Amino acid sequence: MAARLGLPLAPVLPVRLCPLRDPLYALLMGYKESPVAEARGRFAPLVRDLLRSFLVAHGPCVAAAAGGLIDHVLAVPSTARPDGPPLATLEGLAAAVSVALPSACWAPGLLRRSRSPEPPATFGHMRPDARAFEVAPAGGRAGTVTLRGTRALLLDDTYVSGARAQSAAAALRLAGVAAVAIVPAGRVLRPERSAAHDAFLQAHRAPPGPGADPLQRCARCVQVAAPTE
């Protein structure tokens, strides 16, 4: 993927691992896809609180992954939704970000799907392309804030192939952002189809037992010291 993008991949710090059959997957799909408005309204605060708890607990980890304090926070843009990504309008998320990352500004309109005819129409969720997204000339805070040398955090609900999130990170880097970190609420795994996913899930599950906190240790907390950029 890095070779296709022409840039190093952005570090990913998932809030939780998310097998397809896990209730978390149903939650992350339900808050935006459920045909029942009441269900969407019930699920959305849970998604917000999941991200907020992680950012409060692991703000320093996110900053370490990005090489410094975060300046801009935004949701990974949608490839198909005309109203943009559901996270961008999730009630209370902007306030949660300001509490967890006081150095950062909430900039949901910073990126948009590229309007150039050049990017392939199939990039979507499976094919990474650094041209898939672009900085909106007057969207969000892009028109009033210099991006060069800043650091950005991309929030997402699910991380599957990573193509969309990494394409968004690449677009920010091409616009002058020095470093980007990605925090998805759920890193989707398919242990029933992939032996590698099954082994990874078994090795990284939170230890069982009363009082075990799945947010206590994040990917940054347990990783071997190595450069991320």
Main features:
Rossmann fold; 7 strands; 5-stranded parallel beta sheet; disordered C terminus; 7 helices; alpha/beta
Description:
The protein has 229 residues and is an alpha/beta fold. The chain is 34% helix and 16% strand. The protein has one domain: Rossmann fold (3-Layer(aba) Sandwich), CATH 3.40.50. Strand 6, helix 5 and strand 7 form a beta-alpha-beta unit. Helix 2 crosses helix 3.
Number of helices: 7
Mean pLDDT: 85
What is the domain tally? 1
Q: Which architecture name does CATH use?
A: 3-Layer(aba) Sandwich
Q: Label the structural class.
A: alpha/beta
Order of helices and strands: HEHHEHEEEEHEHH
Q: Over all CA atoms, what is the radius of gyration?
A: 17 Å
Give the amount of beta strand, in percent. Answer: 15-25%
- The rounded distance between the terminal residues' Cα atoms is 14 Å
Largest sheet properties: 5 strands, parallel
Low-confidence stretches: 139-144, 224-229
Q: Into which percent range does the helicity of residues fall? A: 25-40%
Strand segment tally: 7
Overall morphology: globular
Q: Would you give the CATH topology?
A: Rossmann fold
| CATH class wording | Alpha Beta
Physical arrangement of strands within the biggest beta sheet: 1-7-6-2-3
